[in-house]
Amino acid sequence: MMFVPKYLEIRPGDRVTWVNEADEEHNVITFPDGYPRGAEAFQSPIMTRAGDRFSHQFKIAGTYEYHCIPHLPMGMHGLVIVERVSNHDEFHQPSPAEVKAYRNLMLEWFDEGEFELPGHEERASAD
Question: Which residues on neighbouring strands pair with residue 30, listed in sequence order?
C-alpha cells in the first residue's frame, strides 16, 4: 500500500498520472493544507480496478502532499515537488468549510478518533 514513486520532482505545467495496479480501492487526494496557496486541491474518485487512472496537471510551483484515504493509516501518502519546495508560509490555509468537507470524507472510511486532521502546527514541528 504505497505510491511508487513516493516522491516526485516535476516542472510547472507537467501532468502526473496515478495508475491503480491492483483490484483494490485507492484514491489520490491532497491534504487540506498540503498544497501551495493559489494552487488547486485535487481528488480522484475511488479507483477500484487495476488499470484505473487519475491525472492532474500541476500549474503552480511548490510542495503538494497527497494520500490515499482508505490506506492513509498504512502510510500511503506521497509528495510532488513542482520546481521547488514550498516555504512554510506558502501553503494553502484551508477554510473551516474545507476542513469540514475533508473531515466528512475521512468519516466515510474511519471512526471518529481514528485520524487527526493535518495542520500547520504538525508541519512546523517536522521542520
Answer: 66
**DSSP, res 87:** P
With CA atoms as reference, report the closest residue to 67 among 44, 86, 49.
44
**H helix or E strand, kind and range, residue 64:** strand 62-67
Residue 103 host element (H or E): helix 96-107
Q: Which of 15, 17, 18 is nearest to 57 (CA)?
A: 15
Give the mean model confidence (pLDDT) for residues 58-84. 96
Give the number of other CB atoms < 10 A from CB of residue 28: 24
- Per the document, the length of the chain is 127
pLDDT, position 119: 54
Least Cα distance to 8 among 59, 80, 78 occurs for 80
d(CA 122, CA 29): 19
Q: What is the distance between the alpha carbons of residues 75 and 1, in angstroms, rounded to a whole number?
A: 8
Whole-structure pTM over 0.85, yes or no? yes
Q: Which three cell numbers stand for residue 4?
A: 511508487
Pairing between strand 62-67 and 29-30?
A: antiparallel
